[in-house]
Amino acid sequence: MPMQAFDHFAISAATLDAGRTYVERRLGAVLLPGGRHDLMGTHNLLAGLGAGEYLEVIAIDPDAAPPHRPRWFDLDRREGPPRLSNWILRTDDIAALVARHPDAGTPVALSRGAFRWRMAIPDDGILPFDGCFPAIIQWDSAAPDFAGSDRRLTRLALSHPGGARLAAVLAEILDDPRIEVTTGAPSLAAHIYTPDGPRVLE
Hints:
The protein has 202 residues and is mainly β. It has helices at 16-27, 94-100, 163-173; strands spanning 4-12, 32-37, 42-48, 54-60, 83-91, 106-112, 115-121, 135-139, 152-160, 179-183, 187-193, 199-201. It has an 8-stranded mixed beta sheet with strand order 2-3-4-1-5-8-7-6. A hairpin with a 5-residue loop joins strand 11 (187-193) and strand 12.
């Protein structure tokens, strides 16, 4: 059985500036430059959540050429204000995990600067369970290091009409008591410890 763990979550936004404002106002955290994803026509900003965990703000890059495939995280269909749209699960054997969950997509090799990783991306850009199922990543280099961050994820609340089925699927691949699943309209909410008290990103 591959080893799995929470890696990060994604706030999708119409622009990076809108996403930056949303996150910084709620968390009191300064977002750091991320980079561009040329294959997907997107770019991002990052903030740490402690060792091995972080959040990203992701948006369509207006200066990038349109990709030849749907963008990840269902960004081609996103609308409205910034929101927590997806979460990402780290594995040490993406091929094995995708073989068990083919709806998660096809592993694609990606890079940015010194970072190298593979991510499973569905052909239509839409992850199972309306995005409540995680994107799957395998780092082939060191991952971003935010060990000095004073903010932490304390709970990731997932709601979906098929909550019982989603909970059963996740229980097979991840043992993390912070991940909670309920039955209801599709939604994600990240509960974050900050030095100024608990905060929620939705």
